[in-house]
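Supplementary Text 2. Reproducibility record for the structural model of the 369-residue chain.

All settings were left at their defaults, and a single model was retained for analysis rather than an ensemble. We include the record here because the model underlies the residue-level annotations in Supplementary Table 4.
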Amino acid sequence: MVAGETTSVGFEYVFPAIRGVQAGREFFVSMCPLRLIPKIFLFDEDEIAPEVRAQRVLNKGRLPALSRYILDNPDDYVFSALTASIDGDIRFESIAEAGTGMRAGQIRVPMAARFLINDGQHRRAAIELALRENPDLGDETIAVVFFHDAGLARSQQMFADLNRHAVRPSRSIGVLYDQRDDLASLTRLLAMKSPVFKQQVEMESSTLSARSRKLFTLSAVHSANQALLQGMQMEKEQADVVVQAFWEHVDGLIPEWDMVRKRTLTAPDVRRDYIHSHGIALHAIGRVGNALLRDSVVPSKWKPRLVKLSSVDWARSNPDWEGRAIIGGRVSKSHTQVTLTVNYLRRALGLRLSPEEQRAEDAYKRGDA
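Retained model, structure tokens:
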């Protein structure tokens, strides 16, 4: 891109671009150096009413993670294109000799024009943060799709249309495809190799249909492993050994899981009649396991303390679950419900509650939970 060229009407931005047509309207695709993104695409953070905005409010809490993603993965980060509207004249000059007819060329935009990001304001802000820490990223590029600004109503409609059919991938498939996270790799290996989970884990969806032959979802196993290893400083190989040993020991205390593998019970029947294969129970077991691992000076000492898990009545019909793991007859995995389920298991194993857990328990007993 060349900025600052003079013409008979003043200064212009010049973008190399390819021209296309959607719904009878021209649009242009260009590659912009990252260092120019924060300078051209200014984000108006003034508090204005939603009805006169064409963007959502910037969620600054998302920016550190997005910025770190770029900085921590300089050789293989991926950012999709920004979509922007130009409030000003756009003049396209084709390069016919390029062999692409009239589509390739450049667009000229007056410097007085305003650029509005219709989709990608968080990516734009994350790029700005990353450039402050690593200016060398400025020579890299990102695709930008330019539309002509046809007014506030059109910009708001574009935002709605761009996000209308956006579907966030399931947490399970995110774990399945994540090659950077050691815990995701551990969970995948556990799901594919462990005798506890092999062929019993739904690898793509984060929910199970009533007829699914799987007992667990990959996202539920991953969350349970996160809870199990929370705050534990372990090498990857050690974590693999601990996690596998933990779930194999738990498996021996929950006979229904083995009955599904032996086909004396079906997975749909177990999920319907018990809660121990649901995400909330796995997460709670993981948190209890974390407490036992932390309290055990000798690694093998946690196993005898977990034996009382076999005495827990996991049946949905157990009235103790109502208000804890079950709300109105349905299993709930809210933060409060997870904590109350952890409390129940801690009591069953003779473990003391943390202050936070005790507050949740007190609220539950008062009927506030």
